[in-house]
Specification:
- This protein is mainly alpha-helical.
- The chain has a domain of about 70 residues: Multidrug-efflux Transporter Regulator, Chain: A, Domain 2.
- It is built from four helices and three strands, in the order E-H-H-E-E-H-H.
- It has a three-stranded antiparallel beta sheet with strand order 1-3-2.
- Strand 2 and strand 3 form a beta hairpin.
Length: about 130
């Protein structure tokens, strides 16, 4: 996938840079570069894809924006469900920590009583 003579004068960017600018995922950019659908894309000497920055009005970006984004809605729902689960787990952890504190207090009281009784027995025998 060699660069054409006309595109050699045009600045090129890594897929990461294009992703940051256009909000098109790196996976899609890489797939499209591999399939020849990303205009001007080529592999550099290091084996990384590079391409000219597609403008906001380029057919590539316009077509990407036209595609439905149903997966994004699913991701949001999953994230909301995940956040609800995190909240439930936090409440459970707080409850368990309270139970642990209560058990620790009971243990300390029982241990103090055991030591007191042991001292009393030792005094009575001695």
């Amino acid at each position: 996938m060699a660069r054409s003579a006309a595109s050699r004068n045009e600045p090129t960017f890594t897929l990461e840079e294009i992703e940051a600018e256009t909000r098109i995922s790196r996976a899609k950019l890489k797939r499209d570069a591999r399939l020849g659908r990303l205009p001007g894309a080529f592999k550099d000497r290091g084996g990384r894809y590079r391409a000219p920055m597609p403008g906001a009005d380029s057919p590539y970006v316009v077509e990407w924006k036209r595609q439905p984004r149903s997966r994004a809605r699913v991701d949001v729902r999953v994230n909301a469900e995940g956040m609800a689960e995190v909240a439930r787990l936090r409440e459970r952890i707080e409850h368990l920590l309270e139970q642990l504190a209560t058990a620790r207090e009971q243990f300390e009281r029982a241990e103090a009583e055991r030591v007191r009784l042991l001292d009393k027995v030792l005094r009575d025998e001695g």
